[in-house]
Design brief:
alpha/beta, 13 strands, 15 helices, 37% helix, globular
Amino acid sequence: MITFETAINVAQQIFQRWGDYNKLSEVTIIRDIYGRLAFLISGQDGLDKNSLTTALQTSLGHYDAQHLLWEGSEQNELARQMTVEIKRLRQVLVSDPNCTWYLLERTIAKKAWIDYSGQVDPIWTYDEAKDGKRPKVVTFYSFKGGMGRTTALAAVAILLAQHGRHVLAIDTDIEAPGLATLFFGEDQIERGTVDFYLESCTNNGNSIDMSAYMMQVSDTKLTEGMTGNIYLIPAGNVDEHYVRKLGRIDYQDAIPSSMRNHLSRLIINAVDFIQDNGHQLDYILLDARAGFHDMGGVVTAQLPHGVVLFGRNTPQSWNGLKQVVQTLANTQQEKLPIAIVDSMSDSSEQHRQTFKTQSFTLCCDNYYSADDTVPGIDAENEAHTPIYVSYISRLNEEIQLYSDGSEMQEKAIEETKNVLCSEEYRLIEARIRQWFGDDAQSEVSGNDAG
């Protein structure tokens, strides 16, 4: 029986058994939104096209889209335009000595997760971020929810601010927002990522007033010891209108690159707004949606300069991270730096050694390329080198990092802050700074500490 998983292999076998296969130079498989296969073929003249058509229809059955496009002088103008567009979007599938195979996936959604083109640029260049000309953009991602991803982001923001870095945290987990409510009461949240996205779609490129979107962390108990600022853009105000807004966002490429463009605009407008108010930014931390969410794919693979991945030592977690790591290794022109965090880690040596072995295998199979010098399993500060964050019961409760004026809440903030500034979270912050050559000994950045 032909299935989605086997159709491409079957098609390749049909071509390779075809008598004129050695006269081909390229075959592009176009898989449509239902999984059916069409083909763009380049080769010599005088090929036995009818026998190939019959063989494909017979063997592929309902997975044959019954469209063969032959590249050549006999193409009409529309076919030539289609050929140019297919070649622009396709990705190499496999090469043999005589014929190169390509694949073009015609999906409705999830495109950011399956783009292995190696042609995507981050929101601005890695060198600009490393040199301090633009902020460093780092995404926090977990395949499964409940991994402590948002809590870790908050911890890293606090630690960076303690080192004098100015940080903007943006909640793009629009379907399960929670970042803003760590730092602010719900009644303080007005607008956020969802609102900006819709306004960006409708305002015809006009400037957007960012004052309603931007919040600054100012609780005196929390900011004690910080020489940098923390700014925040929530997902939005989760009121009776929120789901109606949310329902207008999914399917990122109804207009090509729409979601990337609107999120880029949000980030750039936020940076400009903060600069116009007399401050600079060193880091932008993006809280991504768990799983293979469309916005999560853009935020994780297309925009950042580095990604922190949260997982656990379970088959489901490793299977999810495998797909994510493949995407991060192949989407951008330069391989994204990654850090793998063992969330809610068992402190036993046996558990941690097992996790390290799994992490090493994952990176060897999906991240390090044949051209890389693969570091040893015990090498430090490499992509596969895990950071272990133990289970902490206090962080499994609802965290509130802002005061209601009571002595009890002041004490709770101090205790939670101490946990968030513990060694395990410091290791995440240090790994991120290492990616950009950001010296921890410099307690105040070159930017205005405000």
